[in-house]
Structure formats: C-alpha cells, structure tokens
Predict the 3D structure of the following.
Amino acid sequence: MLNVSVFVIDTRKRCCNSLPVLPSGGGSSRQNQQPLQQPAWIGGDVDGRFFNSLTPGWLRAHMGEHILLLGAPGAGKGTQSKRLAAEFDLEHVTTGDALRANKDMDLSHMDTEFDTPRAYMDAGELVPDAVVNEIVKTALEAADGYVLDGYPRNLDQAEYLSEITDLDAAIFLDVSEEELVDRLTGRRVCDDCGANYHVEFAPPEEAGVCDECGGELIQRDDDTEETVRERLRVYRENTEPVVEHYRARGELVEVDGEGTPDEVFAEIADVVDE
Ligand code: AP5
C-alpha cells in the first residue's frame, strides 16, 4: 500500500451543518434510482422531531454531486472543472495537479519504468495506476461531492473507480485534434497561483504576467508540440476506450467542447442541474 500523505489536495471538511445543498434541490433522476453505498441513516433532531432514518433522495440532495469530466488533453477539463466546483460547491479532484505537486516523489521502490511522476509526465506517458488510484481514493473519501478531472485514463482505472464510488454524471468534452494542439501549445499557467491562460484565446492583460497575482506565466513542460502529440497518442490508445465504456453503458453525456468557455460551461451546468 502506498503512503499518499505527501499529496497536497484541497479537501475542505464539512460537518453535517454545512453540507452542500444542490441548486436543483435534488440530484439527477438517474442518481436517485441508484442504491446508496453508504448506510442510509442518520440520527438527529429536526423541528423538534427525532428521526433515525432519512430517504436516499434526501441524502443524495445533501451530499453533493459526483461528476466525472472526460476529454482529451486540452479539451477544457481543468477550465470547466474549476468553474463547476465553484458554482456547485464541489471538490475539484484533479490527478494532473496532484501529480504536478508531487513530481519528484520517489517511486524507485516500485517496479516501474521511471522513478518519478515527473519522468512519466514529461514523456507524456501515464503515471502508474497504483500511484493515481491512491490519490483518487484519498481525495474522494474526503469529499462530499466532487468534479473528477483527469481520471480514469484507462480501463483498469475505470474499473477501480467503479469499486470506490458511484457517479451521477459522466460528461465528455468533444474537441477536434487540431484545436487540442492549438490550445495546449498556446497555454500558459501562472507559476505562483496556477491560473490558466492562452496566448490567443485567453490572454492576460500584460503578456507573461498573471492578472490574478502578478506571478510569472510559464509553459508547462509537457505542452511542447512533440509531447502534446505523444499525450494525444496515449489518450487515443488508453482513454478513448474509457469514453467508449461509458458511452456503451448509456452513461455518457456528450458536450460540444469547441464553443467559448462560457458556452461550454452553460451546457455542462444544464447537465448537472438536471
Ligand atoms: P493533466 O494535467 O490531467 O493533463 P491533461 O489531461 O493532458 O489535460 P490538460 O490539463 O492538458 O488539459 P485540460 O483538458 O484540463 O484543458 P484546460 O482546461 O487546461 O495530466 C498531465 C499528466 O499527468 C498526464 O500526461 C500523465 O502523465 C499524468 N496523469 C494525470 N492523470 C493521470 C492518470 N489518471 N493516470 C495516469 N497518469 C496521469 O485547457 C487547455 C487550454 O485551452 C488552456 O490554455 C485554456 O485556456 C484553453 N481553453 C479551455 N477551454 C477553451 C475553450 N472553450 N475555447 C478556447 N480555449 C479554451
């Protein structure tokens, strides 16, 4: 078993008084049909009435949604996940950011090709499942509701995910390959606060300087054209079957990811609101 205590993941703790309330007043119809994995009872006192059991619908409505955002590198998963998390009071669980925060973690004790996440990421390859599975399990256990971004990336990860959680929606952002390459090679991120820009589509007010904190904007090591092409190859080989897996089960909601960020967000928010 890996020790993942080194991973830095924002896991806001909520007590029963601050559970998120969904804007729609309930989850999707699909989620309400699914059995709860947790025991569905809580004791308490509401309006002077003691109760010791709650309906699955009430619990679902107060536990937060479980949203999966799927898409190729550059499809806009990070951009949209941040907005969704803020709008619906969900955790943003992102394996990419967690791995970047722990790029030099020593994996030499594992029987793996490279000794650090950095080596896999810089090559555009997938970090071993054992590492990312532990990141996701730890983060999801601490979250009442979440937007999952960057996982699962292969069928084994999808299988593992199904063992540790239920999903309310799997949303796929559909973007053409040439658009993906333009987005990734033009992306700039703030070295201090992580804010995301694009030299053409979402430029900062002053070139090279973050609007939010004044930090320096840099290009991610894996956003060179050569590595982007390799990431897209790895996506086609490993992650497209995951998209097909959810599609074949009738669980995939497909969204046109080529509109403006506002247009794409409006479409995704409609799905979550349903
Ligand atoms: P990760 O960081 O997850 O990268 P990715 O999946 O390749 O996705 P990106 O972050 O590059 O793109 P995005 O879809 O979030 O797009 P964004 O919103 O930033 O993973 C990096 C590496 O970590 C992997 O290669 C792998 O090595 C490892 N890893 C991660 N998870 C793993 C896992 N589960 N298993 C194994 N290894 C794992 O947008 C991109 C750009 O486009 C931005 O500049 C943005 O401003 C712009 N943009 C966004 N939306 C629009 C729009 N609608 N119109 C115009 N421009 C837009």
